[in-house]
Specification:
Chain lengths: 538, 260
Amino acid sequence: MTTTTTPHGTDLGPAGSGLGTSRVGFGRLVRAEWTKLRSVPRWGLIMLAAVGLTILVSLLSAAGSSFQRDSVAPPPVGPHGGQVEDAFRFVHQPLTGDGTITARVRELVAVEGPDQPWAKAGLMVKDGTAPGARYAAMLYTPGHGVRWQTNFVVDRAGTIARGEPWLRLTRAGATVTGYESTDGTTWRRVGSVELAGLPATAEVGLFVASPRADRVERQFNATSVTSSSTWSTARFDDVAVRPATGQPAANWTDEAIGMTGLAKPTAPGAGPAAPAAPGAPDGLDGPDVPPVALVSGAPDATGASTVTGSGDVAPRAVDEDLTRMSLSGALIGLLPIVALGALFITAEYRRGMIRTTFAASPRRGRVVLAKAVVLAGVTFVVGLVTCATAFLVSQPGQRESGFVAPLFPDRSLTDWPVLRAVVGTALVLALVAVLSLALGTVLRRSAGAITVVVLLMVLPQMVAGALPLTAARWMMRLLPSAGFSIQQTNPRYEHVASVCLPEAGCVPDSPWLGLAVLTGYVAVAVAAACWLVRRRDA
Amino acid sequence: MAVRAEWTKLRSLPGNGWLLLALVVATVVFSALSVSAVDIARCPAPTECFEDTTRVSLWGVRVAQLAVVVLAVLAVTNEYANGLIATTLAANPRRGTVLAAKAGVVTAAVLVAAVPGVLGSLLVSRIILPGNGFSAANGYPPPSLLDEPTLRAVTGTVLYLGLVALLAIGVGTALRDTAGAMVAVLVLLYSAPVLVQLVGDPKWQHRLEKAAPMTSGLAVQATTALERQPIGPWAGLGVLAIWAGAALLAGALLFRYRDA
């Protein structure tokens, strides 16, 4: 194809060529494009369809979901205000004033269920034994080495990854400091925390936790996640509590914190309950408790101890993301917007209007940019109103479907994660509109542009269920559909294993990273469009 | 006469040939992808996979049908876009005949292209499946056309693509606009499978799968555990046929009583 006009940098003629000046201001270009966009009634209808579909699908998914509470007791709330898991075996004694506790973790093995990389064995200083109470802990995990964790959400790695590490916690006033050592003589500080309001007498001791095992069975487009409790046993030795003043307490208390849920009452006639071994703590007599857990864990005279525990000390992972659910309609409402974006340029090609446009404004790249600005602005504003409406109207439906406090606290539009999701979804819609516009410019056909955008944005989630887990995860991260990860509002913690299913729309990245991926695609497409319109005949 | 005219229009656009080729290739490629994703190692026991190997082998049409939608929509809307429709109707003023001829030719082309796509998918899956442990020894005989359920799935899938073409022609005739018609058909087809993953309640999932054109139409691919499908194989295809018929009827009525 030969280029008959050389638009870039070529003035139409002398200053008096009828246009006043050949360099049309960008503001005037934007105004011209805005006039075009609003003067086609059909496009208004398409926009309306997008609004209607988004809200309708959001309402449907709120009404069509259900949540059955499996436990009656509300989960404990941690010092950060969020819901937490606080269940573990705690062999502890009171420590008044400043002091130190030291122990060596000899081994930590799973005794029931599969190995858990985030099983925990170590030392803890805790403000009493009530679930959710603040704490500081030095611990060893089989999969992630030595960690310093406090108050459920803070997690920092030590340097020792394997072996039989020495751990130490030191309390000075309200400050607790954690140390690790490979030999018991040279100590390295891993972290320290000020536990505000820690009473003079705190509980210190050994703890073992073993999180629930999630087993994902993906049988072709049908995924089931089963979760079962696991038990791990840790062997400690050289356990020593040294108060700054006075003698350590003589007796240890062996307690199963927050594990009462495990001790299910046996149904009548379901067989005899496992006999409680002497020395077993309260609440550990259910049928799910392995016999090894009943052995007393208090350190003997030489400071050696074996402790078996289950549960987890971590923020509670919530699978259901209600905000995402209330904005899920955008995935379908996006389709009319894709059509609008493509039509905004292909209609001009079809009607020959593009020649008039380019004659009026010979700098073609700027025409494309002006179109993008107008389209993105309009879509963003409409999308924002739509998403906010979708969020608000799907709240009652979600409550009716069983998503109620305390597990699912009420959320307002002004909460930051919700606001981020709503504004972010509007941004995604605007970006997709521009992507469609750019592809429409490149292909000059609405059918082709729509097909490509739909393949990139809507199909990944459908295809995900048919791919192996790793492949599906990478696809969800790398394709532009990753932009929808901005809808995720549940906080994710590195130190909590979570099942992130791509077919459920979960992207294992931060919300903003996904949006950045989409933005990257849009930028490349717009650049290609600008380059091509300048090179090509109109 | 009208059929010959439509056939000439269809074959003289190079894009249509590419779209039919895309249908074949996409069916085989995406089917192969899904077949290679199933593995007996992920099942509790080799004989307890309960995997419907025929259904997995024909999975690619879910993506490949996009080509059918584009082809069928464009067959109608392109005439409106470039004004050819005025010539067509001047040559043959009986609009019902024109629409019937167009629908017949496009659907026939889709059916003809669907056969190699579907058979190719089956062939590829016969090559890949044993490598993933789905061998006759484990109780998974390779999908064969000699089995009645597999034959039903294969014929049903070909018919499914034909019905999708009819649906798209109906919508295209009713809306007359490429972008609008494409998006309308895509919303009809894909909103249900996306929604099913969003709603958690199995009751709602079943309702959706029963009523929506794509999920019900593809029920014809099931060869095992039929009682657990939302709808029977032929009944499901019937639901899609109702959708396609309704769209065609709406298109025909509008075509008949509207200025071109």
